[in-house]
# Entry
Amino acid sequence: MSANGCAFFCKKQFSFRKKKCFSSSYYKYNYFLCMDNNALYSIEGLLTNESFIKYCQGDAEEYAYWEEQFNKVEGLRDTAEKAKQLYELLKAEMTDAAAETVVFRNIIEQQGAETPVVALPAKRRTAYWAAAAVGLIIGVLGVGIYRYNSSVSVQIAQQEQSTGKRTDAAPGRNTAILTLADGSVVSLDSTGNGEITRQGNAAIIKTEDGRILYRTDGKKPSETLYNTMSTPRGGQYQLVLPDGTKVWLNAASSIRYPASFPSDERRVVITGEVYFEVTAVRNRAGKGGLLPFIVQKDNMQVQVKGTHFNINAYDDEADVKVTLLEGLVNVLTANAATTEKQEAVLMPGKQARCGKTGKIAVAGDVDLDEVMAWKNGLFNFSNADIQMIMRQIGRWYDLDISYEGTMPEREFSGKITRNTQLSNVLKILEQSNIHFRMEQNRIIVAP
Amino acid sequence: MKPNYTVADMEDQWERMRGGDTHALLVLYEYNYSDLLSYGVQLSNSTDTAKDAINDVFLHLWEQHVKLKPVKNVKAYLFACIRRKIFHPVYTDKKLWLIEEAVYESTETSYEEVLIAMQQSEETRKKVQAALEKLTARQKELIHLKYFKNMDYREIELVTGISVKTAYNTIYNAVRSLAEELRGALLIIFIFFLFFISR
# Structure
């Protein structure tokens, strides 16, 4: 180790310490860098030197320093050039193409949000909901498990056909109502495509496939304007929130959200059943991290950062069910009376069931296909009771349900496309000795 | 493991992309990404520049997908686009992008030259991969944290528990081994680099 090399290097460190006040460890590890010039000015010497790595990263101060060194030390520029090449080649080789592709996909989807006509290609547009329109009956619903063997079999539906009464109902369709902050209402199946209306600095745009996008001018909003998108019974809808988060609304559901999100958090309020694909957004206000996305339903909230999950929060269902497909979510509840709080962290594939009192139970054995069936255009039941099936049918075909007699305690399993006439669904259920008749907007279920 | 696409498969994806298929666009992006990045780095000596060039090229192709023409050798076309983006970043005549030959003209390079450049670039990439393969798992991990995650030695100590001194020595030895393996290749890139700069 030559004294010369050591003196040079330590001197440099000294000058840097004065300027930038490096931490003691920075000084420490450079202590054993005191080596002769041959080692220091080798590729490995340069690429272990914090100052040179900063130069490679494009640090302006380091650039000035190293340019000076290149002029002073013969051959150094050549070695440094090679070292930088090696550094860049290693960085390139360690770059994950799949991860970069995800980033790029987000870029083009973001672009799609700004210029829907150009960037939303025809094939993609249909993909979301058209899955519903593809098949006919995929599986057979009502391969029931008979707990109590009932043998009554009267074909009521056929009797009614001859009397000219209503015997069928069309499936739900893509429709929703957008209520703007000023109370004005836009029915989204009657409006044309393109910019429907403006709100503050956001243009509200309806795409060809009926999705709603928000295009903000990039300026800070003057005030927070809230919109509510709601689907009727017999309706479903997909929209894209101002931050790029994708939202699917099942029938008889709603979401309230601001036309542009504030910088500290993204908060929405829902009813019914909603599936979210939350876009990860960097938190500009705080130091790093991701901006929280909070879904609220009464005294329950789900806190996420960027993830895919489904919330079933229909008031006529016993529990609010939060099912996680990707990422990580926090489910928080508060008992309205006692204000006692509960919290659960969900991993993918798990479901949190939140009771009305705020009690959370986490289930691990969830059939994700069943939970997500509605979004994929299916009814999918496994071991479901008739009441649960009829609640879904009622919402989707916009019908009320009532029961006559004692319903047998049976469980049903099976799949059927949602894009089918009601009569087809009922016919299959009738295979398992459950009978239906229609009176106006009501289905009467009888054993 | 990434699928092995033939030139014909890529031509097929290109056709789908022209028809507006986002999936095909992403397939072309992901499949060619690593080779294009390595090539871009060899041309620009900057990973950031190369990454931006790739995104710009694909964004541009996507915006113009309706107007794009069929392309026989998609990879060579993409290589030519990347080179053009890096050396003529403000080229504004968009029409030149639309015809395969025009891309080669606009980069003042023949199709054959692009094929040779592609081959050279891939050989260099293979050498880098081979050199990396010779490192131990710990060396690779530390190289990754140091150069890819931009951690300083103190942060590495916090994350891995490997002392500053050990991390330093490990990376020093790893880089020496890489530099030794790639000495010839780095020289070639250097000449290659100057050659294109002088154009």
Observations:
- Chain A has a mean pLDDT of 73.
- Chain A touches chain B through 47 residues (CB under 8 Å).
